[in-house]
Amino acid sequence: MLFKTKIVTPYGIVWEGEAEYISFKSVEGEIGFLPERAPAVMKLVVDVVEIRAAGVVHTFAVHGGYILQERDMTTIITDAAERPEEINVERARQRLKRAEELLEISDSRRERARNQAKLQRHMLRIKLGSERWQ
Predict the structure, then answer these.
(1) N or C: which end of the chain has fewer CB within 10 A?
(2) Which positions fall inside the ATP synthase F1 complex delta/epsilon subunit N-terminal domain (predicted)?
C-alpha cells in the first residue's frame, strides 16, 4: 500500500510521488510513517527526511517546518529541502565557519538563535553532502 507524498517549499514542490514509508525527526524525536496512519501534524527539526518510494530511498536535508499526515496523503512544508547532489559541501563548510564566528559575537538572544539555526543547517548540509561521496 502507498500514500501520496509531497515536499513543498516557498519556491514550489521539491518532490511528489507515492511513498511506501517516510522517516524524519520531529521535536518529539525520530518517527516514521506508513500508509493508513492516523492523522497527525508535527513540527520538524533541521534534519534528514527519507522517503522510500518504489524501492528507492529519496533523501532530503529539510530545514525545519511541519509535516501533515492524513489517511492517504502526507505533506511536508518547509523553508528548504535539498537533495544530497544539490549540496555544495565546500560552500557549506565556509558558511559554517562564518556562522560559528557570528555566533561568538552575537549580542542578543535573537541573533544567537538565528546564528544557531544557520549553524545547524550548514552542519546538516555537510553531513548529507559528504555522505554521498562515501
Answers:
(1) C
(2) 3-81
